[in-house]
Protein: MFS transporter
Amino acid sequence: MKLLPSDQLTNAQVKTGLHLILKDGLATETMNTLTAGTFLTAIALYMGASNVQIGILAALPTLTNIFQLVSVWLVQRFNNRRAITVTGAICARIPLLVIGTLPLLFSNSASVSALIFLLSFQYLFASIAGGSWNSWMRDLIPQQILGSYFSHRSRLMQILNVTLSLCIAMSIDYIKVHYPAHEITAYAVMFIISGVTGMWGVYALARTPEPKSKPINDNIVKLFTKPLTVSNFRKLLVFNSCWIFAFNLVTPFFSVYMMKTLGLPLVYVISLTIVSQVSSITSIKMWGSCSDRYSNKTIIRICAPVYIGCIMAWSVIGVMSSAFMLPLLVVIHMLMGASNAGITLALQNIGLKLAPADEGIVYLVTKNIVTAVFSATAPLVGGLLADFFTSHFVIHLFGRGQWNLFFMAGAVVGVLSMKLLRAVQENGELDKKLLVAELQHLFKRRVRNWHHLPVLRRWFYLRTAVAFKKGRFLHLDELIQFKGWKEKP
Structure:
């Protein structure tokens, strides 16, 4: 298979590429669901990981983003983003297969240090692939459906995440109770399945067409200093870095807090994660539409305070009985899922909008690297703070004062970061009140329609059924028609 870019893509090629990127997204989501997030935390806790080691595992995906510099150098040298992405993705899947194979061959090889070592290579090559992938997608996806397409893709990925997470969590809890000696074997099989599925996603990427980009001839140092000289883009970097620091300071430890301190079973933790994912699924389409019609900055101004409020709400969880604690956790996860979906989509889209077409990869990689420093530092700082508070403070504010102080610290950093958003300028920015009024109208309309059972059946089908027709997603065809992206003769 020749991985060469094309001088110009037809609309049929673009449409085929959009379908293949959806398939790669589903494969990547399967891989990440099995070997990241709550499951990775559960695996690390099973191996006896400390809070600092949990922080290191949470920091690795963003800490290795600095290697996107290598991606830019490769694009500059070869001007073939598809080949770079596919090669990097293959190298990123191999460590997952190694991690899954070692415990099956050597029963005493399961250690946190080995897990961190091998995952560091996985994230390193994934970062190299991700840098060229971002630039590739910017040129491949039509601008008029950019927000809606990524929200559609995210929704499908989250539906898969919800289904797979619940099945795996129930299976792991069953194995813990009935076959505790085989728990490590179950984790090893998860890594093997993850690696194999990831390779299928690489095959889809290899078939995705790539429009040829203009060669980058400038000195690499000058390339990465140029985005920093653009005032508006620099302000976006400052806000994004501060927000991602506040987000990653406490978010990786929600699962640790629920499993170790509150004593919730893994299936409960995964179920709450699913609640968050479902909330994200049902809201992401709305955020995508709002992104195209209003502005990404307006979405952030609405969603970020909601997420900060959720972080503060974690401080009162410990004082409640189980009868009130679980319903509150459900509400918190619903709000976190919806608000984080809007923030993530808005930050991604505003970065794409502010990056010039000719130098898109340079701006996007600069953004990823700068924010990666703060994103990777945050969970490390969070792990140290969590260990410090739990070992030095004996106060019992709201029941579990050590963790409450930790969560409040994250909320304070989030509030401070919001003040930096005002300086960012975005074309088409509208008053936040307009978007709030529309959201209220949509909410009231949906509430009035909830008693119609046929509407509910249709809603469930459209939101949860991933339909294929001749190897293509039906929902994507509907999206393209709805957004008015017409094929050229």
Summary: The chain has one domain: 11-219+231-478. The longest strand covers residues 468-469. Confidence is low (pLDDT under 50) at residues 455-474.
